[in-house]
Design goal:
Blueprint: H1 3-12, E1 16-19, H2 28-35, E2 41-44, E3 54-57, H3 62-68, H4 76-88, E4 94-96, H5 100-103, E5 105-107, E6 128-137, E7 144-153, E8 158-161, H6 167-177, E9 182-188, H7 192-198, H8 208-216, E10 220-224, E11 229-232, E12 237-251, E13 265-277, E14 282-284, H9 291-310, E15 315-321, E16 330-336, H10 341-353, E17 359-364, H11 372-382, H12 385-388, E18 389-396, E19 410-417, H13 438-449
Parallel strand pairs: 1-2, 3-14, 4-10, 16-17, 17-19
Antiparallel strand pairs: 2-3, 5-13, 6-7, 6-9, 7-8, 8-13, 9-12, 10-11, 12-13, 15-16, 18-19
Helix pairs in contact: 4-8, 4-9, 7-8, 7-9, 9-10
Bound molecules: manganese (II) ion.
Manganese (II) ion (MN) binds at residues 145, 147, 167, 202, 204, 208.
Length: 450
């Protein structure tokens, strides 16, 4: 259940690329991550100004994410089911007295400058922690929340956090009403399933640690009494901190999932009081708008779409929040239908299951939804805008999309039914094939090797 254990499995499979050239945490490492986005796991062992530090990135691509969820490779439907079930049937994590970080390196006088925090893009406000798992509880302990946030480092002990008005924001508001700061833990370097659990939408009051525990078949936590919050016992780095309720600072700009810079906003300041780390801690850096960012944020939403659409059509084969659609705004869904109207119902179900979704394309199961050319081919040969287009104006959308109405968070949504009409001859829509003799197959194999 630790990032280390997951990475040693990746190592055995030869999926880790170690880079030991000295590289600056400012832009240089980010440029390498971007160039190799979606490929092997990257391990940087020589970070300039941070002797002894190791940065890991690209931990998750689609294949490794399925493995992190413990499903056989390629079985995306099984992964969705597992995630949906974990969200519906969370199980209690186990509290242990101590974990490795709490035993190895402890900074009683915290200094964030000692961590190899990366600066990613030109125009970013500064070094940003992008893989932070933040956990907090209400003062009576009845509500716990775990979510992933970005944190801009301002000084040795100070950061500013982006709090979208969701659950952590609500706990922070509750603390403000009680005239106190909100104690939190910030964990870096956790198993990918823990990050995925934290981005899975569950109601306020359900702890995402319990979702993670259900996903992994058990999770160990440590109690950080000084801040009334818990953290994964096997995290690489655990910080105890306070979310100030009376101190704000400008947060941003930082590139978000769209690959464009998000706006600057006044956000709460975080003050770190203690840092615990493992020996040679692995610092997990997630490239904003990279494959890993899109998957960790988007995959639980794919599962939600899969669940919602499965309820209204006979079968859903797969859902893809496409990389070109920022892993967030565009979905392609392959379905089986009983009647032609099923495809339009699939569109409506998808648009409401993931409120940020802007454009959705529904195709038949013969289309590979991970291949943008095949999807475009389906639109070119099976779609008629006059009959097959669904348009919804003024719906709730995502403010991450710069073309949306930023003040009211509204957008125009569009659905394309690119499935073959049931009353037409299917043969007219099928892809033509050339018969292959054994000889030609052999020859092609040779030619492709050459
Ligand atoms: Mn929550």
């Amino acid at each position: 259940m630790s990032l280390r254990a997951f990475l040693s499995e990746c190592e055995e499979r030869g999926e880790i690329l170690t880079i030991d050239e000295p590289l600056s945490p400012r832009y240089e490492i980010a440029a390498i991550i971007k160039a190799l986005d979606g490929g092997p796991v990257l391990r940087f062992t020589n970070v300039e100004g941070h002797p002894g530090s190791t940065v890991v990135s690209n931990v998750c691509n689609r294949q490794r994410l399925l493995r992190a969820l413990g499903v056989s490779e390629g079985s995306v439907e099984e992964a969705y089911k597992k995630l949906v079930e974990a969200a519906e049937r969370p199980s209690k994590p186990r509290v242990v007295r101590s974990g490795p970080p709490a035993e190895e390196v402890i900074m009683e006088e915290p200094d964030l400058m000692k961590l190899p925090v990366l600066t990613y893009f030109k125009g970013d406000a500064g070094p940003y922690i992008t893989s932070a798992l933040v956990s907090a509880r209400s003062s009576d302990g009845s509500v716990e929340n775990v979510s992933v946030h970005r944190l801009l480092v301002l000084g040795e002990k100070k950061m500013v956090i982006r709090l979208v008005p969701r659950h952590l924001y609500r706990l922070w508001k509750m603390a403000a009403e009680e005239n106190r700061d909100l104690g939190i833990t910030i964990s870096i370097g956790v198993h990918p399933a823990v990050l995925l659990a934290a981005t899975t939408p569950v109601p306020f009051g359900v702890s995402e640690f319990s979702v993670a525990s259900s996903l992994l078949g058990g999770l160990e936590l440590v109690e950080c009494e000084g801040v009334n919050a818990r953290a994964p016992a096997h995290a690489e780095i655990i910080m105890e901190a306070f979310l100030r309720t009376g101190e704000m600072a400008p947060e941003g700009p930082l590139v978000d999932i769209t690959g464009t810079h998000d706006a600057v906003r006044e956000q709460p300041v975080v003050e770190v009081i203690r840092i615990m780390m493992r020996e040679r801690a692995l610092y997990h850096a997630i490239l904003p708008s990279g494959v890993e960012h899109k998957l960790l944020m988007g995959f639980p939403r794919e599962a939600e779409i899969w669940r919602a659409v499965s309820k209204v059509v006979p079968a859903v084969k797969a859902v893809n929040l496409t990389p070109g659609g920022c892993g967030w705004l565009h979905a392609v869904i392959s379905i089986e239908k009983n009647v032609d109207g099923d495809a339009k119902n699939a569109i409506l179900a998808a648009l409401t299951a993931h409120p940020s979704l802007k454009h959705v394309v529904v195709v038949d199961t013969d289309i590979d939804i991970y291949d943008p050319e095949e999807v475009e081919w389906a639109i070119a040969t099976r779609f008629q805008a006059g009959e097959d287009l669904v348009l919804v104006r003024g719906a709730r959308g995502s403010t991450l999309d710069p073309s949306a109405d930023q003040e009211r968070a509204t957008t125009t949504k569009m659905g394309l039914d690119a499935t073959i009409p049931l009353d037409k001859d299917r043969r007219a829509f099928s892809r033509a094939e050339i018969p292959m003799s054994h000889k030609v197959e052999e020859l092609l194999r040779r030619l492709k090797r050459a």
